[in-house]
Amino acid sequence: MRVAILSRNKNLYSTRRLKEAGEARGHEVDVIDTLHCYMDVTRSRPTVRYHGQELPHYDAVIPRIGASVTFYGTAVVRQFEMMGTFSVNESVGISRSRDKLRSLQLLSRTDVGLPRTGFANKADNAKDLIKNVGGAPVVIKLLEGTQGIGVVLAETAKAAEGIIEAFMGLNANILVQEFIKEAGGADIRCFVVGNRVVAAMKRQGAEGEFRSNLHRGGSAKVIRLSKEERATAVSAAKTMGLNVCGVDILQSSNGPVVMEVNSSPGLEGIEVATNKDVAAMIFDFIEKNAKPYHTRTRGKG
User: Could you give the 3-state DSSP secondary structure of residue 49?
Assistant: First the structure.
């Protein structure tokens, strides 16, 4: 098969591993810079052009769309879908997962465990917002934040009100969530491919840090998931419409709760922690499922 990886940087670990895994299985794999793609939206013959030439037909495309280029990146993925190319993650699923509020609203319709979350537009609703999610301490998150950036723990209601007012004064959209103290600054990253969790690691935040992101000095180790944790991750991925994703779960006293679903999860942390060839598993999924015009969300926008 001929496969395209949409990535801004061919030297990133995840991009390199995917290219190596595909070529090791006999596929022709091209790395294409998403922002250098441009689209010819033409009746009955949509195409993608790249550096002055029309791209050849690809059997499958693997989107590695960074959060900062979500709008343009999903437009490129959508163009490939219009051309009949199988996309590992469809444009609709990527868009859903990138909107933190939208993703939580979709998950709230299911039996998936979630932290109690509030969202408002006016600072004068702050007191009731904090009270409604269980009171201080609370976690305040920027809707557009990634890798733990824009996530603040407010220890008291007064501090939370001040932070909310400050963010809203800058016209920033924020979520207010209950703080899962019993998680102890740790979370579980479940890597889902298809309809199963293929690898999982427990990430522990650095001392004094409530965020467990590896980018912020956290550590990771392999973990054996419970049946409920595994089912939660698969259900969250299915709700988002994602075939390949990282589902971040906290272990709470009420069972697993989903914090985020990542449509472009990094491979380095999970492969190093678990010693599993996740890149090869992604290509195994592509080989079994790549068919022309094989999209689950066609016509749903």
Answer: strand
